[in-house]
Amino acid sequence: MEHSEETIEKRKERVLSFLKQKKEWIYYIVLSAVIYAGFYVRTLNISKLRDITTNDWTLAPDLDPYLFLRWAKYIVEHGTLMAHDAMRYIPVGYDTAGEMKLLSYMMAWFYDVFHFFDKSVSVTYAAIWFPVIMFVFTAIAFFLFARKIFYRENSETKNIIALIATAFFVLVPSWLPRSIAGIPEKESVAFGFMFLAFYLYLEATTSEKFRNKIILGFFAGISTALMALVWGGVIFVFFSIPTAVFFAFLLGKVKRDEITIYFVWLISSFAFMTPFSTRYSPLNLAMSTSTGFAIGVLFIIIFGLIFMRFGKIEEIRKKTNIPKELFSAIISIFVLLTIVTIILGPDFIFGQIREVTSSLINPQTSRFGMTVAENKQPYFINDWKENFGPVFKEIPLFFWLFFTGAIVLFNRMIEKMEKKEKIILTFGYFVFLAGLIFSKYSSGGNLNGSSGLSVLIYFGGLIFFVATFGRYYYVHKKNESNIFEEFDFAYILYFIVLTLGIIGARSGIRLMMSLGLISPIAIAFLVVISSKRYFAEKEDMMKFFLGCIVAILVLSSVFTLWVYYKSDVNMGSNYAPSAYNFQWQKAMSWVRENTSENAVFAHWWDYGYWVQSIGNRATILDGGNAMGSWDYYMGRLVLTNPTKNIKDTMDYLYTHNATHLLIDSTEIGKYAAFSSIGSDLDYDRISYIPTLLMDAQQTRKNGNETNYIYPAGFSTDSDVLINSDGKEILLPRKMAGIGAIILTTNDSAVIQPRIIFVYNGKQYEEKLRYAYINNNLYDFNSGIDAGVFVFPKVQTESGQGQINNFGAMFYLSPRVVHSNLAQFYLFDQKSDYFKLAHTESNLFIDNLKQQNIDIGEFVYFQGFQGPIKIWEIKYPDGVKTNPQYLSTDYPDPELDTPKFGEY
User: Fold this and answer.
1) Angle at which helices 540-574 and 520-536 pack, to 10 degrees?
2) 3-state secondary structure 27-89
3) pLDDT of 14-35, one tens digit each?
């Protein structure tokens, strides 16, 4: 027995000894488990990625990946991408030379490798797996970057920080839709190259051998170029590294090695970007705000170092008492601005300043940009709390973890400074960070991001931080202290990246993902450093206090990770084609089988890639939106155009060789978007189509008549002039509201519907001229020039479906009721020019039809459900091409500029 226990003890000692010697392997094993968790949740949907019309593989529900897949298929078949894409922007087509094509090439190369091992693999199936494989690469690159930031810490600390950060990284819910199976999006690849570029750049700055510095700087440039050839988000790198290097220069940290690394990085990135896309021509690189900024920093640093060697300049500097790095930077900036002004003129400088200022305060400066969902302006009270949760007791845990972590990490960066200085500077950073984030608190309050108070807090926080830092910067430089050279460049780079991530998250919903991927490093640092502080503390009371804090941090982190994992599992399991996508698959099957291969489809831009890739037909518009005014003309002349002006519609479609018009049910919700884009300078078309539901409890019978009440509660989209008691009363746009609509029926007829306007506390009842009920359009030839579209509502009670034929309606204002969309899609009106060729019913409607229940093509069931309608276009005699409709310029440039108070 003793011999057995002795043997066990020896084995334990050998195991512990092995683990101590091979500790690095333990970290990599844990990293593999962490990445596998992310890999697992991203593959849960694969079995559901099927096209119901072909039973073949298809992508998950998204738009842009279908373009990348179509291009990848072409590359696989022909060996290279077509120079001119004849399926886009008919009749002009699209020159792919200026496109970022690397993603499609990588998908094709991945297919080649996959197909080498399994001949049954299709390009689509390879594309399904591609983002998951790239996710693994991105997670590894992130781990390396996170670990490198803390290279001065011991091996255990930096690895644990990187592992915790990576655990958050792989599970952040906002990242999942861009890296899940079936979504080969740009971000699934680009972030990997971005983190790799940051990692390699930091490796270059910390390498001891000069030769290695050059090699690593070169490969950092290659990684940057690869990102640029995938995603325009490369500006993130071109702002981050130059800004970090510029601050390092001001702190006295940039010498020969640092400027050499920066030069090699910048030149190598440009050298590998330029040959593969015309958008990265030398002129474009120099004129761009981001790459131009990077070039400017190179100029400033090189000439700044040169100026510091001039004795006369040094004499002048001493008289000003300005630190030499700052003084030389000011002179270099002045020289640079002078040169740029001479070559490009002062308007270029002012234009760049306006662009940067606008992007910081009002990121979306076009009507189109304002209408894109992913460009929606995020506010802390709703969007930040939702994206950076989970929310516990009204506290968004992830947000406060990274916010606190950023402050603690900043305090660590300046740890060599005196205690008082650290307190003041850390407070200054706190004010800056708080101002940056909370200046855009809510859309309805004073802190809406663009109000005077918001701008004051936004820039006030920055000024306060710069002032506090500048004071100590001046004092230490005056005393020739080298304390700022102790600041770690890795920390400086991370804080620049984090700040740009916050600025991006303020500008659009889509970019909140970027901050979600960067901020875990601050969280991991907070947890690990707090834990180390706890274990190092000897005093009992302080240890208890620190223990409580660490417990809160650890529990919050674990809870957040658990919630994220459960959320990802749920999202991953269901991220697959739904009933709406099946409807599109069936519609595109009809298109493939029943239209000519040279058919051209006109529709709103959202569906272009689907028609091109699933339907294999050319389109006028698509998600690239590369033709400027074409969206405006489609919104104005086709979708919102009154049918009395049908000639304008036909001229536009004929100019673009359109053979078919397609309208989808989601156009109802998008009416506000394309009516805004298609409006004139006075927003003559802007409107929306609200849905009203019957309030059954207010239904009243009066003899053989029944009154149905549809509560409303929205404002009017145009001025309404009514006659009340012999007086004309103006109900002004947006100030007057619609309280309800009353629909009255009797046993034999439909009675003219009534609308109740509300203005200044008074109600005004008027009649509506039009009503579409039971597949019939009624024109009562009097009343307000507006109408209602009544359709059934289905709801389930106790497992049984109940149909209310009058359960829902659309209110169609005077601006909407005569539009092509209302007349053709909703009212099903006949036309000499548009012959309804196909109606693809919603799957719920299809299901009812199979049960011999016919309620028409429109129904309200868990929201509005409607068909996809496709018309064949017949052109009238005498129709002519209008060159204006092919121009990418707006008739008036102001047509793309949003007006304050509109949307």
Assistant:
1) 150
2) HHHHHHHHHHHHHHHCCCCHHHCECCCCCCECCCCCCHHHHHHHHHHHHHHHCCCCCEECCCC
3) 666 655 666 778 889 999 999 9
